[in-house]
Specification:
It is a single chain. Helix 1 runs antiparallel to helix 2. The radius of gyration is 18 Å and the shape is elongated. It is 33% helix and 33% strand. The longest helix is centred in the first third of the chain and has 23 residues. The strands form two sheets. Strands 5-9-10-8-7-6 form a six-stranded mixed beta sheet, with helices on one face. It is an alpha+beta fold. The mean pLDDT is 92. It has three helices and ten strands, in the order E-H-H-E-E-E-E-E-E-E-E-E-H.
Length: 159
């Protein structure tokens, strides 16, 4: 099994994450100091943080023709078919629009659409490290910290 770390979060990801933490602290402050502040408003922000973190990519593993996206709550496996194509594309996220998922809090994951890639699924932290995988008629973008080594091991594992 080959393990790869995700790339460090890009500036947008860091700013969005920091702002959400500040907003969470602000809601907690309001809850503690305002008599009529609704408790569900304060509780919602930590729940969002926990859920979002739980689905974010924390690493990648390659083993026996399968790419495993390591996430805190549960991992996602992608079977690497014989039709696998892999390219390093630092502009994979350029012009991408989020269809569903997360667009910056702890990373980027879910469904995205762009003119270049069409509909794709991302498990990313910094688009500049983007590796585009096409297999089984689906397109994925992942962002390992060592894209070239990752692509080599991915291709070897797929056979």
């Amino acid at each position: 099994m080959d393990d790869f770390s995700t790339a460090p979060c890009d500036t947008t990801c860091r700013v969005v994450t920091a702002l959400i933490f500040v907003m969470t602290a602000f809601f907690v402050f309001l809850f503690l100091y305002l008599e009529n502040f609704p408790p569900y408003a304060m509780a919602l922000m930590p729940v969002v943080l926990i859920i979002t973190w739980g689905f974010s990519a924390r690493g990648y593993s390659i083993e026996h023709g399968t790419l495993l996206i390591q996430r805190p709550f549960f991992s996602k496996s992608i079977r690497l078919g014989p039709d696998l194509s892999v390219t390093h594309d630092p502009e994979a996220g350029k012009g991408a629009v989020k269809v569903s998922g997360n667009g910056g809090l702890f990373g980027y994951y879910g469904s995205f659409r762009s003119r270049k890639l069409g509909l794709f699924t991302a498990y990313a932290t910094d688009w500049k490290y983007g590796v585009v995988l096409k297999t089984g008629g689906k397109t994925f973008v992942v962002t390992p910290d060592e894209p070239e080594m990752f692509m080599t091991r991915l291709t070897e594992s797929a056979g």
